[in-house]
Amino acid sequence: MTDKAGLRRELRARRRAFAATRPSLPAPSRLLIEALCPGGIVASYVPVGGEADPALFDAAVVAAGGVLAWPVVIDRESPITFHLGSTDTMADGPYGLRQPQATGDGVVPDIVLTPLVGFDSRCNRLGQGAGHYDRAFALWPDALRIGIAWSVQQVDALPRDPWDVPLHMIITETDVFLPGVPK
Ligand SMILES: Nc1nc2c(c(=O)[nH]1)N(C=O)[C@@H](CNc1ccc(C(=O)N[C@@H](CCC(=O)O)C(=O)O)cc1)CN2
Ligand SMILES: Nc1ncnc2c1ncn2[C@@H]1O[C@H](COP(=O)(O)OP(=O)(O)OP(=O)(O)O)[C@@H](O)[C@H]1O
Question: Where along the sequence do coiled-coil regions lie (predicted)?
């Protein structure tokens, strides 16, 4: 199956089923976080639909002196913006998301911890289908794009459209993928 809509259906179901077994990501090493994030702005996300929970990364970022930001959806067609904030003060947003009550233009992230529906070993990413992250990556091409996922979300090769921006790294509960080192 190579069409994106069909893959999304299958991979969302796989993600939910795997998440129900209560897997967890390993805590990232202090050295990795300190190397990647010397006091920068790291965009994270609040997981939905069985997405891998980046909470241990969030904690490591803060411990390393970084600042967390969160995506805010305006509508399906607009780029997401990233806003500083804490999970305690978020409000309900579209698609069942929790998001900061945003004011202003938001911040420019140094690192984007990126949720995904599917990925391949070359760090291509399939998202929710609204182009929200691809638009953000086009706006902030200098940000380091790190995908966070469960291993069951891997497929052999994703179909690619011209606007798809690959990730620099994908971390799962069992592996780290780098685009130059296919597994
Ligand atoms: N946790 C999280 N936050 C995120 C995203 C994400 O993928 N995960 N986004 C990524 O772009 C943006 C929100 N964009 C979205 C665009 C479409 C749908 C969507 O169509 N959801 C389906 C249900 C999906 C499911 O069953 O798991 C729907 O509402 O029908 C969701 C989010 C920003 N915040
Ligand atoms: N940089 C961009 N500028 C304008 N539109 C874009 C851009 N990137 C993607 N899109 C639009 O977003 C829509 C969805 O793209 P796609 O199916 O690749 O979603 P996706 O890979 O699930 O993306 P995401 O996770 O970023 O939501 C497409 O109609 C595409 O035209």
Answer: none
